[in-house]
Structures are given as structure tokens and as C-alpha cells.
Automatic annotation (TrEMBL):
It comes from Dreissena polymorpha (Zebra mussel). Residues 32-93 form the FLYWCH-type domain. Keywords: Metal-binding, Zinc, Zinc-finger. The lineage of its organism: Eukaryota, Metazoa, Spiralia, Lophotrochozoa, Mollusca. One of its GO terms (molecular function) is zinc ion binding. It comes from the Eukaryota. This is FLYWCH-type domain-containing protein. It holds the Pfam family FLYWCH.
């Protein structure tokens, strides 16, 4: 009789089962921040707000929108080719799956629009 000593399952890698992570897409939502400014929304549940424009590289820097008295998320993304790249800092909070669709539904201002990247 075989007795398994550990209840942990061996790790399964996506390449072993033919499943790959879906590509993260980004959209700019006009006037969706609390101050009516643009917000960058990712399909994996994170949102970013405008931080600054880098004139030497001609790029816009976006920071994570989670920022309050108790939490400051260090994640930053910048445009690269036809997508965005991270600064390497992980988010300090959980993602909100479906936030990209919720912002479209909750935005009532007719001037607000969604620009996909």
C-alpha cells in the first residue's frame, strides 16, 4: 500500500499543459479618476493615473492609482512599442478583476470615452 507523505500538489507550469497566460491589454479611460482625469486600465485588474510626461523619451509615465494615507503602491508603467512595461515594482495590493468593464459602465459623462491600446 502506498502512503503519500505530503498533500502538496506538484507545481504545474502552463507550458506543460498547453495553457498560456493571456496578454494584458491596456485602455485609457477619459475622465474616470476622482478628479475627472484620464485613467489607464489594465485587463488584469489594475488601474493607473497620469504621473508625468518624460520629454527626453517622449513618453507618459503612469503610476498605480492605489494611493491613500495607509497605502502607496509603487507600481509604474510606461508605454513601450504597442503596449506597456512595468518598472519592476510589484503591486502592494490585490487586483480588482473586471475593473476595466466596471469603469465603462459607471462613467456617465458623455465626453468620456475609452481608447484601447
Amino acid at each position: 500500500m502506498y502512503v503519500r507523505r505530503s498533500f502538496e500538489e506538484p507545481p504545474v507550469h502552463p507550458e506543460h499543459v498547453g495553457v498560456h497566460e493571456s496578454e494584458v491589454t491596456f485602455s485609457v479611460m477619459e475622465c474616470s479618476s476622482q478628479r475627472g482625469k484620464r485613467k489607464l486600465v489594465s485587463s488584469n485588474g489594475f488601474t493607473y493615473v497620469y504621473k508625468r510626461f518624460n520629454p527626453s523619451k517622449q513618453t507618459t509615465i503612469w503610476r498605480c492609482s492605489v494611493r491613500n494615507k495607509t497605502s502607496t503602491c509603487p507600481a509604474i508603467v510606461v508605454p513601450w512599442v504597442q503596449s506597456f512595461v512595468s518598472n519592476g515594482s510589484n503591486h502592494s495590493h490585490q487586483a480588482k478583476p473586471g475593473i476595466d468593464k466596471a469603469l465603462v459602465i459607471n462613467t456617465k459623462d458623455p465626453r468620456c470615452k475609452l481608447d484601447n491600446y
